[in-house]
Write a structure and sequence with these properties.
Elements lengths: L11 H25 L2 H4 L3 H25 L3 H6 L4 H39 L2 H45 L4
Length: 173
Amino acid sequence: MAIVTGTLTVNTAFLREIKDDNQHLQELLATLHELTGNPSAACNQSQRIVELLGELRDQLAFHFALEEAYGYFDDAIDAAPRVAERADQLRAEHAILYESACNIAESAQEWHMQRVFHHNSSGDVRGNGTARAPSFRRILIQFQQFRDQLAQHEQNENSLILEALDTDIGGEG
């Protein structure tokens, strides 16, 4: 009977960076979720939502860069190679999720710029705001769908890491 062991190195400075990044990302998501929960009320917070969507896009780029640059689950995968394919799939999702975040932030910025332009041109915010509300509502729906996809992705990453650590490194694999 052979005993398979793996070595997992832990960089505490990196773990702190990941924790801080994750906390900020979760705060952004929670704030946006709260602001976008009621589309009618969200129109009153549209400028803040547009700014936060841009911040979310930037924070997500940082979040994914940290995960990929430091390879926070590379050691676990090296010790548990059977999860490598799932890890590769999850890494590939980073580009898809980031592109979605970029599209949502860009759509929101364009909507906001059109609204500002129409406000400055006509002086009638209500008329133009109402005409643009369905477009803004679509942006809100896209954000909610994105948030759900990101949450599922993060859950899948955590499950993969736990599985690799528990099964393979823990001695059952």
